[in-house]
Amino acid sequence: MELDLTKSLYHSMLLIRRSEERILEEMMKGNLASTMCHVSIGQEAVAAGVCSAMQPQDYLTSTHRGHGHFIARGGGLSRMMAELFGKETGYCKGRGGSMHITDVSIGHLGANGIVGGHLGIATGAALWTSLNKSDAVTVCFFGEGAVNEGITHESINMAALWKLPVIFVVENNHYAMSLAWERSTPQLSFTERARAYGIPGVDVDGQDVLAVREVALEAIERARRGEGPTLIGAHTYRFLGHSRADPSKYRPAEEEERERARDPLTIMRAKVGAEMISDQDVEAYEQQVKEVLDAAVKFAEDSPLAQPSTLFEDIYA
Amino acid sequence: MSVMMYRDALRRALYEEMKADPRVFVLGEDVGAYGGAYAVTKGLSAEFGTERVRDTPMSEAMIVGAAVGAAMVGGRPVAEIMYVDFITLAMDQIVNQAAKIHYMFGGQIKVPCVIRTQQGTGRGAGAQHSQSLESWFIHTPGLKVVAPATPADAYGLLRASIQDDNPVIFLEHKGLYAVKDEVPDEPYVTPIGVADVKREGSDVTLITYSRMLHVALDAAKQLAEQNVSVEVIDLRSLLPLDMDTVLRSVAKTRRAVVLHEAVLTGGLGGELSARINEALFSELLAPVQRVTAPDVPLPANVTLEKYLVPNAEQVKKAIEKTLESKQKVH
Known about the structure:
By secondary structure, chain A is an alpha/beta fold.
């Protein structure tokens, strides 16, 4: 579907939303090969906004809650669904599942299951592109839970010290499993936090895809000019529990209601107006997304299961 | 042939690899102008510049993380962790990241990086600067682990490790840096996963690696004077293990002793003993013996430390025990 930028941002968020809803549906049907699956419903604007600001040569690293980053970066839904179904046609040959979804051909360096573990990878990738005089920028998505991991400090410090082309995007969905952001750190501002490293820090409404895109564009271009990293705190909300097993009873009902009302899809339509994204547009996107997802699920269903005989492959390169 | 110190042989390997391949770069604490805590990288930053031989902040997790990330997108980094004891701070990057990325992502990404570090006793460096931690790494599929004992192998294995497409944990020994021996002048690689029979013998196989090789050779020499013929195997690579060489030797001698500086419990001695028993139980004339450090943290005291480091006397006793065993010959 050929769309202009504004429309494509909306489409990207819708595609993430419907894909994750479909993933949950397939999970309930028992079609997923792994019990590990974390959806980002409610957080789509961060992935869509940031990825829209990236160039083809850029890299990204992602988290256990990574479907959104993967889809926004242009990852294929059929092979993604096949991966979740544990099929040999999946991107990771059915070994990675939801938590490790990756397509290196689009500069995706992996969804990582260790909170904070990939900040080292992102900074290392930026170190190499910097040494190698490439103009690629690496975007590192992580949740606010990772902010308190030791390697986060080490990574941001090193990236700032050497002015590496890496963007640190904190997807602050306000809960690290059950722990509220306010109960995990006394410094809630990313602008302030970045000052300690001598780099720009921006706090942005993570439900506003256009605002996210704007700060990401500025940060990425700054990094591309060799001026170093930016810390972006995108304030968003996880509409559902941490995982399927989590009814999220630790969150006040009124907070959930208030935050769910701040749906990035609704916010965007209100912001750009019906003349930019009409009801007919949305209807057409919904139809197209449904077709893509039906085809992806069919591809996954029709693909052969990953075979035990492949278990001993790829342990070493 | 030139006589060369272990540390100089390592430096030569780094130098030649950096000359040959612009993707190779070095990073770690004090590796630049200072030349490394054990002087392995001395002079390299003057030759290759401070970007390619890069001093890092004291951030072990990030040193390894940087190596892993750089390797994933085309670099061939050689990271130095000053003491293996400090690698505890980087275990996620090694165990969950470097070792898993190729497999977990379905073979899409390679992680060709070398993590050089040094371990072992000999300097009274204490509980946090003297450990031998190889078992932690051999317990992790996806890594390769090497531990050279001689200057020639230090050179050849470092070249092989840098050329390898997998993450390699390169375990040097602080007590070996000043050891001198012959190194061929022509460039070569020592293949990973191939053990070396250092001394041929017929009565018992003594299997070891790293600095304990020299203790093993000393014990073997002393026993030769008592007409005991000891075959000494230097494993050189700990993951993968060259079991062909080990089993071929033990099938011949029918007795085996494993010697290492790491503590007993969970050590490589147990693994080797189990594999020898599984393959050759009915051939063995005696139970496999282990000579290792006891399960004790190391004191910062050279005199006390010596009581915890295996020596030639202990090795000789273990060998004598295998020779005295009354196990029936089938």
